[in-house]
Design goal:
Elements: E1 2-6, H1 8-11, H2 18-31, E2 37-40, E3 48-51, H3 56-62, E4 69-73, H4 87-104, E5 107-110, H5 113-121, E6 127-130, H6 137-140, H7 144-154, E7 162-166, H8 175-183, E8 189-193, H9 205-213, E9 219-223, H10 230-236, E10 239-242, H11 252-259, E11 263-266, H12 269-274, E12 280-282, H13 285-297, H14 299-312, H15 318-337
Parallel strand pairs: 1-2, 1-3, 3-4, 4-5, 5-6, 7-8, 7-10, 8-9, 10-11, 11-12
């Protein structure tokens, strides 16, 4: 069976995007199976199209795949809040467009319970499969060599305690909160990795630029790094904080946990619905600060944080997710071949 995996992030060279990482993970996961052939975008025509993005290419490429189109839903209408200006005004148009996007797919893979509910609430005419984003654990395992390289890339000294943040430079991701937290923990080095996919259309770009420019010396926004360097970046850090205000099934905190460090999330509804295991969480900046200081100063608390990370990522083992994905491909292929009733 041949699978055509599609993503406009590759066409547009959007390396720093979580959606692009999910696309790359999907390709790598499928290529592990000797019974599958994988082609990317226009490299060839497959038996099934599996897209990770929802722009013009998704609609054009899908014309070849009647009853054989799968979309992994990484983005929902609420994702534009805090990402682009005038999100509230644009929301009716955005909701209309996403309904069209979801209905165009024969199967939508909902990467979280929240995403599944949004697809239903929009009234999209599609089949929904709930399936977590897989984490390729071996990709993120740290070692001394990776840590040394990552610390050099981030300008860190050997004894620095590094608090890492990863995500787009925009309000939705909590970048401004990251700065405020860093100000209250001057004994740690704070590094944020990420860029601006929306460029000058990013919500609050001037406000955030001013805050970045005036941030204390222990807080640095290091820009984008190639995907191939991200294992080094994670290995360089001691703690990961994720102050984002809206997410679906985020990869960055899972990658950080797989690298081997505690992860502190903002306490939002999405995570309580998504995660089957316990996770560290903070309701506001003061609670982030309190937990960061505790994990810096208390070795026992830090070890507990490591254990929580290890348990948390067990939900996202690639083996069961891969099994369900291949079953989905087989079911769609059999329907189109007329081997079973649609």
């Amino acid at each position: 069976m041949k699978i055509n995996v599609c993503s406009e992030t590759k066409i547009l060279n959007m390396q720093g995007e979580g959606v692009n990482t999910a696309f790359l993970n999907c390709v790598e996961l499928l290529r592990e199976d000797p019974d599958l052939e994988v082609v990317i975008n226009n490299e060839g025509v497959g038996d099934i199209m599996h897209s990770h993005t929802y722009g013009p290419y998704y609609f054009l490429r899908g014309l070849r795949y009647r009853q054989r189109k799968i979309l992994t839903v990484h983005v929902i209408p609420d994702s534009i809040k805090g990402s682009i200006p005038a999100a509230k005004i644009l929301m009716p148009l955005v909701r209309w467009y996403f309904k069209k996007v979801f209905s165009y797919a024969d199967v939508c893979i909902a990467i979280s319970p929240m995403v599944e509910q949004v697809i239903k609430d929009l009234g999209a005419k599609t089949t929904i499969l709930r399936l977590d984003n897989p984490i390729l654990l071996d990709t993120w395992k740290r070692n001394p060599e990776l840590r040394k390289k990552g610390r050099a890339l981030l300008g860190l000294q050997e004894n620095d305690f590094c608090v890492l943040g990863v995500g787009q430079l925009e309000g939705r991701k909590g970048c401004e909160d990251f700065i405020e937290i860093g100000k209250k923990v001057p004994g740690a080095e704070f590094r944020w990795i990420g860029g601006r996919p929306f460029g000058i259309l990013t919500e609050g770009i001037l406000r955030l630029n001013r805050q970045i420019a005036s941030a204390p010396s222990n807080i640095k926004f290091s820009g984008l790094f190639p995907f191939s360097d991200m294992a080094c970046i994670y290995a360089a850090a001691d703690l990961f904080i994720f102050p984002s205000y809206q997410e679906n099934c985020p990869l960055a905190p899972m990658e950080a946990a797989a690298s081997g460090m505690p992860v502190i999330y903002r306490n939002i509804l999405e995570y309580s619905l998504l995660y089957k295991n316990n996770y560290l969480k903070a309701n506001n900046n003061d609670e982030f600060v309190e937990q960061v200081k505790s994990l810096m100063d208390d070795k026992e608390a830090y070890e507990d944080g490591l254990k929580i990370s290890k348990t948390l990522i067990s939900q996202f083992s690639k083996h069961e997710i891969k099994k369900q994905l291949i079953q989905l491909y087989s079911d769609l292929d059999r329907v189109e071949s007329g081997l079973v009733n649609a």
